[in-house]
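Hi Y.,

Following your request, here is the sequence exactly as I used it, all 168 residues.
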Amino acid sequence: MAKKSKKKQQPGGGTPATVALTAAGVAYTVHSYEHDPAHPSYGEEAAQAMGVSPDRVFKTLVADVDGTLTVAVVPVAGQLDLKALAAAVGGKRAAMADPALAERTTGYVRGGISPLGQRKKLPTVLDASASGHDTICVSAGRRGLEVELSPTDLAALTGAVLAPVGRG
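Below is the corresponding structure, written out as C-alpha cells. Let me know if you'd prefer a different format.
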C-alpha cells in the first residue's frame, strides 16, 4: 500500500524533484511504495502499488532528437511515439537516448528519472493526454517514489510543450 504525505521531508532528505516543487510553492503529494527489482515495468509497478489508473501515471523517457537530449513524459500504459516527439520540438529524427547518458545528464537512475529537478534542464514534451486529468503522477526522483501534481504545474515547472507523443 502506498503511503501519502503532503510537502514533507522524505526519509534521507528530499530528492531534487521534491526540493524543486517545494521551492516553487507547488501543491503536490508524495507516494512511496516498496520497489520490487524483479517487476518488469517501473511505471506499471507504481500504478499498481499506488492503486492509480495507469493512464494517470506517467513515465519520464529521455530521447535524442537531432543530437539534443529531450524529455518525453507519457502514460505508463502506452509507448512513446518518437516521430511525434521529434515533430513536437521541431526536429526530424528521434531515438531513445543511451541510458547511461540519460542518467548522467538528468542526475537520476533509470526507473527513477523525474522530469523535475534534473541536473541539466532539457527540452520537455508532456503528452497531451495529461491535460485530461486533474492530477498525474511522475517519478519523484527514485524508484519507489512518485509525486502527484497538476499537469499544468508540471508543464510550467519544466517548460514543457503539450503534444500527442504517447500512443497505445
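The chain is about 25% helix and 30% strand.

Thanks again,
Q.
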